[in-house]
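Why does residue order matter? Because the sequence determines the fold. Keep that principle in mind as you read this record.
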Amino acid sequence: MQITLKQIQAPIKEEMNSFEKHFRSSMKSTVPLLDKITNYIVKRKGKQMRPMFVFLSSKVFGATTESTFNAASLIELLHTATLVHDDVVDEAYKRRDFFSINALWKNKIAVLVGDYLLSRGLLLSVENNEFELLRIVSQSVKLMSEGELLQIEKARKLDIKEEVYFDIITKKTATLIASCCATGAESAKQPKEVVERMRQFGETVGICFQIKDDLFDYGSGAGIGKPAGIDIKEKKMTLPLIFALSKATKQERRRIIRLVKTDKISNSQVQEVIQFVIDSGGIKYATEKMYEFREKALTILNEFPENEARNSLRDLVLYTSERKK
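Structure:
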Protein backbone atom coordinates (compact mmCIF):
# COMPACT_ATOMS: atom_id res chain seq x y z
CA MET A 1 0.00 0.00 0.00
CA GLN A 2 1.43 3.37 -1.04
CA ILE A 3 1.95 5.88 1.73
CA THR A 4 -0.05 9.10 1.41
CA LEU A 5 1.10 12.71 1.69
CA LYS A 6 -1.22 13.08 4.70
CA GLN A 7 0.71 10.34 6.51
CA ILE A 8 4.05 11.88 5.50
CA GLN A 9 2.93 15.26 6.87
CA ALA A 10 2.05 13.84 10.34
CA PRO A 11 5.19 15.17 12.17
CA ILE A 12 4.66 18.65 10.68
CA LYS A 13 0.86 18.80 10.66
CA GLU A 14 0.73 21.97 12.77
CA GLU A 15 3.41 23.68 10.68
CA MET A 16 1.62 22.88 7.41
CA ASN A 17 -1.68 24.17 8.84
CA SER A 18 0.01 27.43 9.88
CA PHE A 19 2.05 27.82 6.71
CA GLU A 20 -0.74 29.05 4.42
CA LYS A 21 -1.40 32.00 6.75
CA HIS A 22 2.33 32.82 6.87
CA PHE A 23 2.65 32.56 3.08
CA ARG A 24 -0.48 34.66 2.49
CA SER A 25 0.84 37.30 4.90
CA SER A 26 4.20 37.40 3.07
CA MET A 27 2.38 38.44 -0.16
CA LYS A 28 0.09 41.07 1.42
CA SER A 29 -0.35 44.27 -0.56
CA THR A 30 -2.38 47.49 -0.25
CA VAL A 31 -3.16 47.29 -3.99
CA PRO A 32 -6.56 45.53 -4.40
CA LEU A 33 -5.67 43.94 -7.75
CA LEU A 34 -2.47 42.45 -6.31
CA ASP A 35 -4.36 41.12 -3.30
CA LYS A 36 -6.94 39.52 -5.58
CA ILE A 37 -4.25 37.80 -7.65
CA THR A 38 -2.18 36.62 -4.66
CA ASN A 39 -5.33 35.16 -3.07
CA TYR A 40 -5.88 33.25 -6.30
CA ILE A 41 -2.28 31.97 -6.13
CA VAL A 42 -2.79 30.69 -2.57
CA LYS A 43 -6.07 28.96 -3.50
CA ARG A 44 -4.53 26.98 -6.36
CA LYS A 45 -1.74 25.49 -4.26
CA GLY A 46 -0.65 21.98 -5.22
CA LYS A 47 0.78 19.21 -3.04
CA GLN A 48 3.01 21.74 -1.19
CA MET A 49 5.98 19.41 -1.35
CA ARG A 50 8.51 22.25 -1.09
CA PRO A 51 7.29 23.50 2.33
CA MET A 52 7.13 19.85 3.44
CA PHE A 53 10.81 19.38 2.60
CA VAL A 54 11.69 22.60 4.48
CA PHE A 55 9.76 21.74 7.65
CA LEU A 56 10.82 18.09 7.75
CA SER A 57 14.46 19.02 7.11
CA SER A 58 14.33 21.41 10.05
CA LYS A 59 12.53 18.98 12.33
CA VAL A 60 15.12 16.26 11.75
CA PHE A 61 17.36 18.45 13.93
CA GLY A 62 14.75 19.59 16.47
CA ALA A 63 11.77 21.93 16.53
CA THR A 64 10.84 24.29 13.71
CA THR A 65 11.38 28.02 14.31
CA GLU A 66 10.14 31.32 12.88
CA SER A 67 13.20 31.10 10.64
CA THR A 68 11.84 27.82 9.21
CA PHE A 69 8.56 29.52 8.27
CA ASN A 70 10.55 32.34 6.66
CA ALA A 71 12.55 29.79 4.67
CA ALA A 72 9.41 27.99 3.43
CA SER A 73 7.72 31.29 2.48
CA LEU A 74 10.87 32.59 0.76
CA ILE A 75 11.16 29.48 -1.39
CA GLU A 76 7.45 29.55 -2.29
CA LEU A 77 7.60 33.27 -3.16
CA LEU A 78 10.63 32.95 -5.44
CA HIS A 79 9.44 29.67 -6.96
CA THR A 80 5.95 31.08 -7.65
CA ALA A 81 7.55 34.14 -9.26
CA THR A 82 9.51 31.89 -11.65
CA LEU A 83 6.37 29.87 -12.49
CA VAL A 84 4.36 33.03 -13.27
CA HIS A 85 7.14 34.23 -15.58
CA ASP A 86 7.51 30.75 -17.14
CA ASP A 87 3.82 30.71 -18.06
CA VAL A 88 4.27 34.02 -19.89
CA VAL A 89 7.36 32.78 -21.73
CA ASP A 90 5.72 29.44 -22.64
CA GLU A 91 2.37 31.08 -23.50
CA ALA A 92 0.81 28.54 -21.12
CA TYR A 93 -2.77 29.18 -20.12
CA LYS A 94 -3.21 26.41 -17.55
CA ARG A 95 -1.15 25.00 -14.69
CA ARG A 96 -2.41 21.99 -12.67
CA ASP A 97 -5.91 22.44 -14.17
CA PHE A 98 -6.09 26.10 -13.04
CA PHE A 99 -5.92 29.05 -15.39
CA SER A 100 -2.50 30.76 -15.29
CA ILE A 101 -2.11 34.38 -14.20
CA ASN A 102 -1.41 35.46 -17.79
CA ALA A 103 -4.55 33.69 -19.02
CA LEU A 104 -6.76 35.60 -16.58
CA TRP A 105 -4.96 38.97 -16.33
CA LYS A 106 -2.73 39.06 -19.47
CA ASN A 107 1.05 39.08 -19.84
CA LYS A 108 1.89 42.58 -18.57
CA ILE A 109 0.15 42.03 -15.23
CA ALA A 110 1.61 38.50 -14.92
CA VAL A 111 5.18 39.80 -15.38
CA LEU A 112 4.59 42.55 -12.80
CA VAL A 113 3.09 40.05 -10.34
CA GLY A 114 6.16 37.81 -10.80
CA ASP A 115 8.39 40.80 -10.10
CA TYR A 116 6.33 41.67 -7.01
CA LEU A 117 6.61 38.13 -5.60
CA LEU A 118 10.36 38.20 -6.19
CA SER A 119 10.68 41.52 -4.35
CA ARG A 120 8.53 40.24 -1.46
CA GLY A 121 10.89 37.28 -1.08
CA LEU A 122 13.91 39.57 -0.97
CA LEU A 123 12.25 41.88 1.57
CA LEU A 124 11.10 38.97 3.75
CA SER A 125 14.73 37.87 4.03
CA VAL A 126 16.22 41.32 4.59
CA GLU A 127 13.59 42.45 7.12
CA ASN A 128 14.20 39.31 9.20
CA ASN A 129 18.01 39.30 8.78
CA GLU A 130 17.81 35.92 7.04
CA PHE A 131 20.81 36.58 4.79
CA GLU A 132 22.06 32.99 4.65
CA LEU A 133 18.59 31.75 3.63
CA LEU A 134 18.53 34.43 0.94
CA ARG A 135 21.97 33.36 -0.31
CA ILE A 136 20.91 29.69 -0.56
CA VAL A 137 17.65 30.42 -2.38
CA SER A 138 19.12 33.12 -4.67
CA GLN A 139 21.77 30.63 -5.79
CA SER A 140 18.96 28.20 -6.58
CA VAL A 141 17.03 30.74 -8.71
CA LYS A 142 20.27 31.60 -10.59
CA LEU A 143 20.85 27.91 -11.39
CA MET A 144 17.22 27.44 -12.47
CA SER A 145 17.60 30.28 -14.99
CA GLU A 146 20.87 28.81 -16.29
CA GLY A 147 19.24 25.38 -16.63
CA GLU A 148 16.32 26.77 -18.64
CA LEU A 149 18.67 28.64 -20.99
CA LEU A 150 20.94 25.60 -21.38
CA GLN A 151 17.92 23.46 -22.28
CA ILE A 152 16.74 26.01 -24.87
CA GLU A 153 20.24 26.17 -26.37
CA LYS A 154 20.60 22.39 -26.64
CA ALA A 155 17.00 21.68 -27.70
CA ARG A 156 17.52 23.45 -31.03
CA LYS A 157 19.67 20.58 -32.32
CA LEU A 158 18.24 17.82 -30.13
CA ASP A 159 21.83 16.72 -29.50
CA ILE A 160 21.68 16.41 -25.71
CA LYS A 161 24.02 13.81 -24.22
CA GLU A 162 23.28 12.17 -20.87
CA GLU A 163 25.78 14.28 -18.92
CA VAL A 164 24.24 17.50 -20.33
CA TYR A 165 20.76 16.20 -19.47
CA PHE A 166 21.81 15.66 -15.83
CA ASP A 167 23.38 19.13 -15.76
CA ILE A 168 20.10 20.64 -17.01
CA ILE A 169 17.78 18.81 -14.59
CA THR A 170 20.13 19.40 -11.64
CA LYS A 171 19.91 23.14 -12.34
CA LYS A 172 16.24 23.30 -13.42
CA THR A 173 14.54 20.96 -10.95
CA ALA A 174 16.85 19.47 -8.35
CA THR A 175 18.35 22.74 -7.14
CA LEU A 176 15.01 23.93 -5.73
CA ILE A 177 14.44 20.80 -3.63
CA ALA A 178 18.11 21.06 -2.60
CA SER A 179 17.52 24.60 -1.33
CA CYS A 180 14.40 23.44 0.59
CA CYS A 181 16.47 20.88 2.50
CA ALA A 182 19.43 23.24 2.98
CA THR A 183 17.29 26.12 4.28
CA GLY A 184 15.44 23.71 6.59
CA ALA A 185 18.75 22.64 8.16
CA GLU A 186 20.01 26.24 8.22
CA SER A 187 16.86 27.40 10.03
CA ALA A 188 17.60 24.73 12.68
CA LYS A 189 21.03 26.37 13.19
CA GLN A 190 23.01 23.41 11.89
CA PRO A 191 26.73 23.72 11.00
CA LYS A 192 27.67 24.43 7.39
CA GLU A 193 28.76 20.84 6.65
CA VAL A 194 25.34 19.52 7.76
CA VAL A 195 23.52 22.17 5.69
CA GLU A 196 25.63 21.17 2.68
CA ARG A 197 24.91 17.47 3.22
CA MET A 198 21.18 18.20 3.40
CA ARG A 199 21.53 20.22 0.20
CA GLN A 200 23.11 17.18 -1.48
CA PHE A 201 20.29 14.99 -0.19
CA GLY A 202 17.68 17.36 -1.67
CA GLU A 203 19.51 17.59 -4.99
CA THR A 204 19.59 13.80 -5.31
CA VAL A 205 15.86 13.57 -4.51
CA GLY A 206 15.21 16.29 -7.10
CA ILE A 207 16.99 14.32 -9.82
CA CYS A 208 14.95 11.24 -8.89
CA PHE A 209 11.77 13.39 -9.05
CA GLN A 210 12.58 14.67 -12.55
CA ILE A 211 13.36 11.22 -13.97
CA LYS A 212 9.97 10.08 -12.64
CA ASP A 213 8.39 13.01 -14.50
CA ASP A 214 10.21 11.90 -17.66
CA LEU A 215 8.71 8.44 -17.30
CA PHE A 216 5.19 9.87 -17.03
CA ASP A 217 5.52 11.00 -20.66
CA TYR A 218 5.42 7.37 -21.79
CA GLY A 219 1.96 6.79 -20.28
CA SER A 220 0.63 3.26 -20.45
CA GLY A 221 3.93 1.99 -21.82
CA ALA A 222 5.56 2.95 -18.53
CA GLY A 223 2.66 1.64 -16.46
CA ILE A 224 1.61 5.13 -15.38
CA GLY A 225 -1.37 7.28 -16.11
CA LYS A 226 -0.40 10.70 -17.52
CA PRO A 227 -1.41 11.42 -21.17
CA ALA A 228 1.61 10.27 -23.14
CA GLY A 229 3.84 12.33 -25.37
CA ILE A 230 3.57 15.86 -23.93
CA ASP A 231 7.37 16.22 -23.65
CA ILE A 232 7.80 14.75 -27.14
CA LYS A 233 5.34 17.29 -28.58
CA GLU A 234 7.28 20.05 -26.82
CA LYS A 235 10.56 18.67 -28.24
CA LYS A 236 12.05 18.06 -24.78
CA MET A 237 14.89 15.56 -24.59
CA THR A 238 14.13 13.27 -21.65
CA LEU A 239 16.31 10.47 -20.28
CA PRO A 240 14.38 7.53 -21.85
CA LEU A 241 14.66 9.16 -25.31
CA ILE A 242 18.32 10.16 -24.86
CA PHE A 243 19.23 6.57 -23.93
CA ALA A 244 17.20 5.09 -26.81
CA LEU A 245 18.88 7.41 -29.33
CA SER A 246 22.33 6.50 -27.95
CA LYS A 247 21.61 2.84 -28.84
CA ALA A 248 20.10 3.52 -32.28
CA THR A 249 21.74 3.16 -35.68
CA LYS A 250 22.58 6.41 -37.49
CA GLN A 251 19.65 5.92 -39.84
CA GLU A 252 17.20 5.19 -37.02
CA ARG A 253 18.51 8.11 -34.97
CA ARG A 254 18.00 10.51 -37.90
CA ARG A 255 14.47 9.21 -38.43
CA ILE A 256 13.44 9.65 -34.79
CA ILE A 257 15.03 13.11 -34.47
CA ARG A 258 13.24 14.14 -37.68
CA LEU A 259 9.94 12.96 -36.17
CA VAL A 260 10.50 14.84 -32.90
CA LYS A 261 11.44 18.00 -34.81
CA THR A 262 8.21 17.83 -36.85
CA ASP A 263 5.99 20.88 -36.35
CA LYS A 264 2.54 19.81 -35.15
CA ILE A 265 3.64 16.21 -34.69
CA SER A 266 0.66 13.84 -35.02
CA ASN A 267 -0.51 11.44 -32.31
CA SER A 268 0.51 8.48 -34.45
CA GLN A 269 4.02 9.92 -34.85
CA VAL A 270 4.23 10.48 -31.07
CA GLN A 271 3.23 6.83 -30.54
CA GLU A 272 5.95 5.78 -32.99
CA VAL A 273 8.57 7.64 -30.92
CA ILE A 274 7.20 6.14 -27.70
CA GLN A 275 7.33 2.61 -29.12
CA PHE A 276 10.91 3.19 -30.30
CA VAL A 277 11.92 4.27 -26.77
CA ILE A 278 10.19 1.26 -25.17
CA ASP A 279 11.72 -1.20 -27.68
CA SER A 280 15.19 0.32 -27.16
CA GLY A 281 15.08 -0.17 -23.38
CA GLY A 282 14.80 3.55 -22.59
CA ILE A 283 12.04 3.07 -20.00
CA LYS A 284 13.94 0.30 -18.23
CA TYR A 285 17.18 2.29 -18.20
CA ALA A 286 15.57 5.50 -16.87
CA THR A 287 13.72 3.55 -14.16
CA GLU A 288 16.98 1.93 -13.01
CA LYS A 289 18.69 5.35 -12.92
CA MET A 290 15.82 6.77 -10.87
CA TYR A 291 16.19 4.00 -8.30
CA GLU A 292 19.97 4.58 -8.18
CA PHE A 293 19.41 8.21 -7.20
CA ARG A 294 16.72 7.18 -4.73
CA GLU A 295 19.15 4.84 -2.96
CA LYS A 296 21.83 7.53 -2.93
CA ALA A 297 19.37 9.96 -1.29
CA LEU A 298 18.33 7.39 1.34
CA THR A 299 21.99 6.65 2.12
CA ILE A 300 22.66 10.35 2.80
CA LEU A 301 19.48 10.61 4.89
CA ASN A 302 20.59 7.72 7.11
CA GLU A 303 23.54 9.84 8.29
CA PHE A 304 21.13 12.01 10.32
CA PRO A 305 19.38 11.33 13.66
CA GLU A 306 16.53 8.83 13.44
CA ASN A 307 13.22 10.39 14.41
CA GLU A 308 9.70 10.92 13.06
CA ALA A 309 10.76 13.71 10.72
CA ARG A 310 13.59 11.66 9.21
CA ASN A 311 11.19 8.74 8.69
CA SER A 312 8.76 11.08 6.92
CA LEU A 313 11.57 12.39 4.70
CA ARG A 314 12.38 8.77 3.81
CA ASP A 315 8.71 8.19 2.96
CA LEU A 316 8.67 11.40 0.90
CA VAL A 317 11.64 10.11 -1.11
CA LEU A 318 9.79 6.83 -1.72
CA TYR A 319 6.61 8.73 -2.60
CA THR A 320 8.58 10.78 -5.14
CA SER A 321 9.61 7.67 -7.06
CA GLU A 322 6.32 5.75 -6.73
CA ARG A 323 3.76 8.54 -7.26
CA LYS A 324 1.12 8.10 -9.97
CA LYS A 325 0.95 11.76 -11.06
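The chain has one domain: 12-322.
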